[in-house]
Amino acid sequence: MNNYSSHLDWHFRAKRRERDNARKAQSRRWYYEKADWIVSDEIEDEELDLSEEEVILEQSLEVPTVKVEAEDKEETCPVCFEQFNQVFKQGEEEEEGAWHLHNAMRDP
Q1: pLDDT digit string (tens) for 78-106?
Q2: In what helix (H) or strand (E) does residue 100 lie, and over which residues does it extend?
Q3: CA angle 52–55–61, rounded 5-degree value
Q4: What is the Cα–Cα distance from 45 to 40, expressed in whole angstroms?
Q5: pTM > 0.70
Q6: 10-14, 42-46, 63-67, 103-107 — which one is most confidently predicted on average?
Q7: Which is deepest, 9, 53, 60, 86, by most CB within 10 Å?
Q8: Which of 56, 57, 63 is CA-nearest to residue 84?
Q9: DSSP one-letter code for 31
Q10: Per-chain mean pLDDT for the chain
């Protein structure tokens, strides 16, 4: 019960801080510092340094999906208990044109 009351106290303090900050005028700098500009350029350069093979490999990676069956009541991962997102795959093939669980795999 102590954890619950401390959690509620945290919410109260967060709401009060949010309300107090809303009353104050917020200001920020117009320009980034020189060091920030340099870091952002380095990040962009790292993203652009992919070779053609890496780009092709990245585009060819396919996220596994599993067709939703009528008997599927569980839409959560049995390992981590995370909910699966449902996506509709359009197309003419057997696996397409139905609802699928995104980023899921079935036991053989």
Answers
A1: 788 888 888 888 776 666 778 888 878 77
A2: strand 98-102
A3: 140
A4: 9
A5: no
A6: 10-14
A7: 86
A8: 63
A9: S
A10: 76
